[in-house]
Amino acid sequence: xxxxxxxxxxxxxxxxxxxxxxxxxxxxxxxxxxxxxxxxxxxxxxxxxxxxxxxxxxxxxxxxxxxxxxxxxxxxxxxxxxxxxxxxxxxxxxxxxxxxxxxxxxxxxxxxxxxxxxxxxxxxxxxxxxxxxxxxxxxxxxxxxxxxxxxxxxxxxxxxxxxxxxxxxxxxxxxxxxxxxxxxxxxxxxxxxxxxxxxxxxxxxxxxxxxxxxxxxxxxxxxxxxxxxxxxxxxxxxxxxxxxxxxxxxxxxxxxxxxxxxxxxxxxxxxxxxxxxxxxxxxxxxxxxxxxxxxxxxxxxxxxxxxxxxxxxxxxxxxxxxxxxxxxxxxxxxxxxxxxxxxxxxxxxxxxxxxxxxxxxxxxxxxxxxxxxxxxxxxxxxxxxxxxxxxxxxxxxxxxxxxxxxxxxxxxxxxxxxxxxxxxxxxxxxxxxxxxxxxxxxxxxxxxx
Amino acid sequence: xxxxxxxxxxxxxxxxxxxxxxxxxxxxxxxxxxxxxxxxxxxxxxxxxxxxxxxxxxxxxxxxxxxxxxxxxxxxxxxxxxxxxxxxxxxxxxxxxxxxxxxxxxxxxxxxxxx
Lengths: 449, 115
What we know:
The complex is a heterodimer.
Chain A: H1 4-16, E1 20-25, E2 30-33, H2 35-41, H3 45-48, H4 53-57, H5 61-65, H6 67-74, E3 78-87, E4 91-103, E5 109-118, H7 120-130, H8 143-157, E6 162-165, H9 172-182, E7 190-194, H10 200-208, E8 209-210, E9 222-223, H11 225-228, E10 233-237, H12 244-256, E11 258-259, E12 268-269, E13 273-278, H13 282-288, H14 293-299, E14 302-305, H15 316-331, E15 337-338, H16 340-348, H17 354-368, E16 373-374, H18 388-396, H19 400-415, H20 420-427, H21 431-441
Parallel strand pairs in A: 6-13, 6-14, 7-10, 10-13, 15-16
Antiparallel strand pairs in A: 1-2, 1-5, 3-4, 4-5, 8-9, 11-12
Chain B: E1 2-8, E2 11-12, E3 21-28, E4 31-39, H1 45-54, E5 59-61, H2 67-75, E6 79-81, H3 88-97
Parallel strand pairs in B: 1-5, 5-6
Antiparallel strand pairs in B: 1-2, 1-3, 3-4
């Protein structure tokens, strides 16, 4: 198998297999890299060949037990060793690795071969089933999200009560789960109580539980949600909907960390971490007198605000990428992404339903798209571009606000000499937002090159 | 000024989050005046972040790093020169000369918001 014909034959076979395959010499330099390896790692073969495999894969195994090293040292094959590598956009990709030794016809050691399988789809489904989200699952690189990422290590480390505010569909639940899964209570239960869906009469028994005989139908003891969350985290979803009498009871739990089940005579300790979330601004409700200020301050020891998607449009491409990966895993498809036109449309949309709406839009695209890329025609009708006459009508009547915004952009570009980065900084918006607004208003950068 | 480099032997570690040893160099007037190696038993990626924060590190020079860790570090005022490879000594020398640039990192998936 040494002639050029044989080599081509082997290359054809390797480029057609779905698993990544690469070979290294005895100094860990990559000598071949198939097409699937390029796809999984995001590194083209011409950039991978000649480099040390650790510098291409950035795997957790490189330091704690390189599979190729073990095979080369012992001569034994390894099969299905789990590992994580870093691929496109610094994303951790779960893979399983198999290794074998490479020898020439005379039995001399040439190096080793590794095959690896992308387990993203399986891992994605496992996470959804087990709800084992970490902040790796919170997708966003906008300034607002960076601020949240920055405080997460401290929030996770502490046991402080957290208040998460943000509009519906913006990802508050994911953030709450991530805080729990990162905390020292992660082995404990995670219990959610929806404050908006429980009648006042049931709230107390649901939260604190009851003992047998507490009321007519109480035939046996029933633990409340606080008891069920013992050692873990309890989330009060839609906390703004709590009626005033119940607010007092929750305040007592937060202040004294104790409660009594209905009909009980013993006071129980509440060993739980409390997270509250709401789609309303609690501070406003406090000033209106609809929410107790003492409870508000107790809940908001740490306050995290998740902004609506329209205020962090630069996250849309990352979220799209995330959902495409997720729906590929769920539906067994191989859609690569969105066409630039479809992406442009999403970047212009206001997403009143926030991230949940974007998720639905991508799922809609997955249903209709039978090609590699989701295009404009695969998106829901309400997102489709306006007809020309309707668009012209809108364009001919720009609002005063739009005119002011366009003028501000022109002025900032003038000050920055046409440099987009500087102008964006000046305006306090991201480069992507500036670029989108420039497109919208038909403004061109006049930077001299 | 303090510069951290996760190391694996003589080379920069392949990935910041998985690195077991982080070398922290104290630099004064362009010269290294102290070097300390911190060995981390924990596999928790956040512990690496906390070490850098607690040691008052100004710059991290590393191989691979996940986006959100890079963002988290940047948000805390730590400059990150990521996706570089080679020997720790060589990287540090290039950094002190002001010629060290971040590497390109892995390619982005096609058709998804990339430039």
